[in-house]
Write a structure and sequence with these properties.
This protein has four helices and nine strands; from the N terminus they run βαβββαββαβαββ.
């Protein structure tokens, strides 16, 4: 079990930090651009709609796709998939389902709220040998220490949605 400080900046900046780290690692990876609600417009009746959302959906962009997919097999895994979250942002049902399905299909998967946590799991993934059992992520518990939120994480429990816990 470890304690990681939550990423407090914008999620875009978190993704850029992870991208820089992965570029330096030399691993084959991809950012799955799942942002279908990029431009909001209003019709004549004042209803809001996404300009590009329908086109991206028709092109195959999937709701819930993880932010990072590493396409290098390690141990018994075909690759690694990560959903990045900043601050106390929560995962959607689609994101849980996507990570769960990837995990069932042989991917090392986890949601991540901290750059230090990402580095820890990336290092763990890179060192994997002939693992025979999957690693599953436990939903984090948050702890408030001196006004900063930290998450306590552990391995061994399959995906499980829980309300944000603050102790």
């Amino acid at each position: 079990m470890a304690i990681y400080k939550l990423y407090e900046g914008l999620e875009d900046n978190f993704q850029i930090s992870v991208a820089n780290l992965l570029n330096l690692s030399g691993m084959l990876w991809h950012h799955a651009a799942g942002e279908r609600k990029t431009k909001i417009s209003t019709d004549r009746n004042g209803r809001r709609y996404t300009v590009q959302g329908g086109m991206l959906k028709r092109k195959g962009v999937k709701a819930g796709a993880p932010d990072v997919i590493i396409m290098e097999p390690k141990g018994d895994y075909h690759g690694m998939a990560v959903e990045l979250k900043a601050r106390t942002n929560k995962m959607t049902d689609e994101q849980y389902e996507f990570l769960s399905r990837l995990n069932q299909n042989g991917y090392f998967t986890f949601p991540c709220w901290s750059l230090d946590e990402f580095i820890y799991y990336l290092d763990l993934y890179k060192k994997l040998g002939g693992m025979t059992t999957g690693i599953h992520y436990q939903e984090p518990t948050y702890v408030n220490l001196k006004g900063n939120y930290y998450q306590i994480v552990g391995l061994g429990i399959a995906y499980k949605k829980k309300a944000l816990q603050r102790i």
